[in-house]
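Write out this protein's structure.
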Amino acid sequence: MQLYRELTLLGAGLCALAGGPAAAQTTPLPNLAATAPAAAIDSLVPPTALTLQEAVELSYRRSPALEAQRLAREAAVAQRKAAWGMRLPQLGVAASYTYLSKDIKAFDLNAEKEAALEQLGQLPLPFPIPPQIVQAVRGLDLSLTLQKQQFAVVGASAVVPIYMGGRINAAVNAAKIRIEQSDQEAFKARTDLFAEVVERYYGLALARQALRVREEVTAGMRKHLDDARKLEQNGMIASTEKLYAEMFLARAEGEQEAAALQIETVNRALGTSLCQEADYRPVTELFVVETLQPLDWFRQRVKQNSPLLKQVELTRRLAGEGVRAARAAFLPEVAAIGAVNAWDWQLTELAPRWMVGAGIKLRIFDGLSSEYKHAAAKKQVRQVEVMQAKAEEDLMTLTEKLYNQLRSAEAKVRALGASVEFAASYLEAKQRAFSEGMAPSSEVVDARLNLAKARIERLAAACAFDVTLARLLALAGETETFGSYASMPGYRTVDND
C-alpha cells in the first residue's frame, strides 16, 4: 500500500506535470535553431500532435511578453532619436500682441508750446498777431513718438547648441544604452519563455507516460484478480487473497481516473504558454545525454552570454552616463542665437528686424544641488559595481547547482534502467509463483507497484534532465543549441518500457 501511495505522488508532482493521450508515433529531438515555416505552425490549430520545436516557435509568435518587449524597444529607439534632436538647432515661431499704457515718445513740447503762446499774447507788441497764425501754431504737433500704444509682431527664432558641458552626449549615450537594455530584456524574456515551454511540454509528456503506466497497472491488477478468482474456485488460495486483489484493483482504477482528470489541467498550462487552447499531444520523446560538456564550459557561456549579467553591465554603463550628465552642471553652456521679425504692425522703425549672437551660461551657486547630484551619481555607479560582482557570483553558484542536478538526473536514469529490468523480472516470477499457489496475492501486487514506481521514477528523472538542461542553457543564453544535443555522443531517448 505504501508503494502504491508513492506511485500516486510521483505521477502527480514530478517535473511540473502536464499531460495528454499517448501519441501514435514519436520523433527525434528537433533542431530548435531552425525556424518552422509559418504554414506548418498555422496548421497546428487545433493540433493533435505537437513537436517541441513547433511548441517553442508557436510560443514565440504569440507571446504577449515578447510583443511587449518589441514595443519597449520601439519606445527606446524613439527616445534615442529625441536625444539626438538636442544636437540640432532649436527653431521656433512666435506671435505677440502688446498694449501699452501710453505711447512711448522721444520728446513732447506741446505743453511748452501752449505756455509760449500765452506768454506771447501778453507781450506789448507793436502790432497784434493774426489769429490765423496762432491757430496754425497751435495745430503743430511738437512731439516724436517712438512706439505707439498698440503693436503686434510675428517672428522666428533659432538656438544652436555649441557646447553643453557634455550633457547632450551623456543623454545620447544613455538613450543608446537603453536600447541595448531593451534588447537584453527581450532576449531574457525569450529564454525564459523557452525554459517555460520546455518544462510544460515535457511535463505533459511525463504525465501522458504516467497515465499509460497507470493504465497498465490497472490492466495488470484486473488480470491478477481474474487469476485470483480462478484459483479461489479451484481451492488453491483463500478468499482473502481475492479480496486483496479486488481492493487494489479498485484503488488502481481510481488513481487512473485521477490521472486522466489531471491531464486536462496540465494540458491547459501548456496551452497558456502557447496562447492557444487545444488538446496537445507531445510527440518529442524524453531524452538524456550521458556525455555533457564540462562545468567550466557552461560557466564560460554564462559569463559571456547571460542576459542577466549583460543587463547589470548595461545598468553600470547607464550609471556612468548619469555621472557625466551630473558633471555637466559645473561646466559652461554655450549657444548661438538668432531671431527675425517676419511681420509687424505699428512696431517702431527703430526696432531691429533681425539679430544674431552667442551666449554663455555658467552656474555660480545653486544651493549645492549640483554637488549633491554628482555625488549621488557616483555612489550609484559604485552600487551597481557591487551588484555586478554579486550577480556574477550568484550565477556561477546557480550554474554549478543546475549542472550537478543535470548529472544527477542522468545518473538516476541509468540506475533506474537496471531497476526496471529487475522489477519486471521479479513481477514475472511472482506471477508464476502465485498461479502455482506458491506466493500470496500481496507479493504480486507489491511487485507490480514496484515496477510501476521504477518506471515512473525513470521517466521523471529524464524529464528533470530535460527541464534542467533547458534552464541551464537559458541561463547561459544558449537556448538555440538545445536541439543539437540530439546529435551528441551518449544521447538516448527514454520511453515507457
